[in-house]
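Lay summary. Proteins are chains of building blocks that fold into shapes, and those shapes determine what they do. In this project we predict the shape from the chain. Here is one chain we studied, written as its sequence of building blocks.
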Amino acid sequence: MKNILLLVGLCASCNLYGQKKGADFEPIALQCEHLVNPLGIDVEQPRFTWMLKDDRQGAKQVAYQVIVGTDSLSIVNNKGDIWDTGKLMKDNILVRYAGNDLHALTRYFWKVTVWDKDGRASSSGVASFETGMMSRFNWKGAWISDHANENDKPAPYFRKKFTTNKTVKYARAYIAAAGLYELSLNGAKVGKNILDPMYTRFDKRLLYVVHDVTAQIKSGNNAIGVILGNGWYNHQSLAVWDFNNAPWRNRPTFCMDLRIVYTDGTEETISSGRDWKTSSGPIIFNSIYTGEHYDARLEQKGWDEADFDDSKWNGVRYRSAPADLIVAQQTVPIRMVNTFTPKSVKRIDDKTYVFDMGQNMSGITKVKASGTAGTVLKIKHGERLHQDGRLDQSNIDVYFRGDKETDPFQTDILILSGKKQDEFMPKFNYKGFRYVEVSSSEPLDLKDLNITSYFVHSDVAAKGEVKTSSKLVNDLWKVTNNAYLSNLMGYPTDCPQREKNGWTGDGHLAIETAFYNFDGITVYEKWIADHRDEQQPNGVLPDIIPTGGWGYGDANGLDWTSTIAIIPWQVYMFYGDNRLLEDSYQNIKNYVDYVDRISPEALTTFGRGDWVPVKSTSNLELTSSIYFYVDATILSAAAKMFGKQDDYEKYDRLSKKIKKAINEKFLNVSTGIYGSGTQTELSMALHWDIVPEDVKTKVAFNLNKKVEESGFHLDVGVLGAKALLNALKNNGYEESAYKVAVQDSYPSWGWWVVNGATTLLENWDLDAKRDISDNHMMFGEIGGWFFKSLGGILPDPEQPGFKHILLKPIFPKTLDHSEITHVSPNGDIVSKWKKNKNIVTYDVTVPANATATFFPPSNAKEKQSMALEAGKHRIKVQLL
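And here is the predicted shape, written in a compact code that computers can read:
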């Protein structure tokens, strides 16, 4: 074998194995606002995206045309009465609408035509989107509630009977709520979403949801049913976070329009108002934080059906709108995504059973049970067991301050009717758990008890896959994704049990793992809007978002609340979409300006520091100042992008000033040591590009030496866990980085897995006495690092959204093969390799309309990079 990289060219009409294939191409995967055929679009300039399906070598789009109109047949015939871009000689796959003004409550159709490199055209199918209210003044319904106050426990039920005598063309239910709701029509739940609408700063911005209910409208008599839950709006349970004292707290309320369009062209709207009726029901208590209590004896069968007798129900009352801003929930919904049945069951006694669901998760449990009327079942959830097999909640109930008898933590209560097999599943709560303990006030035979648990989270589409010859790597990837999904509930949380808080640090530390693995852009656009709502006039942000007021303390600094800059930037990197960065520009600027005002010497201690380290403590001023530099750098780049020249020059100077101040105070140039030389201090300086070029080699050597001295074990907290593997890998120490990543003894990520963890933990030490949640995401960088290392798949900041792909894979000595896939905006990127002694066969798929550059790792004999066009490529790499 010659000392070269060998590129095997593939003919345009053959795949990797020489099989013939068709040369068809077409635009596919059409989305509006990053959603498929969405309802309730409230923005004036929605974004359109698509992919080019074309497997030919060098496939690319050289031009496109987007047409939008109100008639689908006209769109099929290439006529758009609303917008027609004409043929534009561009390769864009993301464009912003720039046509005539869009009208509220209107269905639009669109398609895209693309031209390939040979000048041939191909059109997509027809996609659609519907605008929503677009203004609070387009609502016809009133905000209504029952006559109870915020301290009353039973959930309110509402109903409205109406009649239709015409043929329905289509029908949409628009519902906004302060609190949570479940909507039903004619006795059947509407849609598959749960826990709608999502948590926001309720006194500033409320979300409404649009449902297609065409199929559920009957000819003749109909009935609408609505149940309201407390959610985060009326937090009755007590915890250290003071959500019960939130400034918005009140009895839940809702506003609804059911808009029906008939085939004869007429329409009518059934709206919430005084003609609705209300009653209590079997949900006698509900808390998003602790649980739900259900008395099956109080069920009113058929309460949401047209022929129900509601003569004993009460009238409703009007309420003022809780916020002026009521906007569509333009994000993927929360759903019950996976189902789990018990892997084992342990009978404690004739009243108590413990079920192992086999997976730690965020979710809910459905219980079917039979027994004597009034029998009380307590359905308790947790992550650990005592030695006697009973449920142990001591690691997660530490911040609960409520009454454990009347409002037990992570516990549902079911009171049996005695008339039938009762079925209960909470509507307005979720928990973090692996084990479920059911205890009964009366003896209960296991044959009379059936439970099923559901993994509940934002239903984001998978975008990444890791398959290697290492079981530990594969398990770590799965475990990380389980933790990530467990902490995605319309906003990223720290843990699904103890807190459910949107800790900002956890959110940005795991952001690359998030985007390599899942299509989460709409979740983060919603969450950064929450940031904008919570930001103080002086620029300060709380470190949990949303918040009822907690989190504006002295430590809510840069290492946490840099989310305001880092997440919009990463959205731009992964999606090539700068809308979020543009929308948040002034907020980033206000934040950086605030830190600048309190940091006249460009150094700051504003932050929490390297949270939950193994043993070594890192300098707070160093780590916080590094994030100050990161934010200023992002801001200067954004200013340049948006043509704000004065801002660009100002914040470019600021970033350089910060970098200079850090190096002058913390870098010993002669030794190549930052601070006291901890893994965190050295790796953060390298990872975030603080180190001067002429000192990088020395600093990286010291970091590697530090890692070798620890036996390739971690000695970091959350900030170091983000930086360490990247700093080693990107500075010539790929083998050391991999050894740390797959270490399976304490302290390491692998230590958790070999000890049976199915999600990431909060503490490296399994025997720690505090910070011991078993489902946390703050150490989640590991899941994304496999894409950046074994796959080597990286976005190019100069051509973001993987328009140009940087391929920098590593080939560790102890790994035989690896296949990493990421679905980029242009399509599937596949980075696959297999070793045979010192020869690596590297197979790459570059999606149509993209290019790539392959950079050999440091242990390759040939160091020259290689440009790759779209298509499949095989590269032979000889290792040293």
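What the prediction tells us: The CA atoms of residues 176 and 208 lie 4 Å apart.
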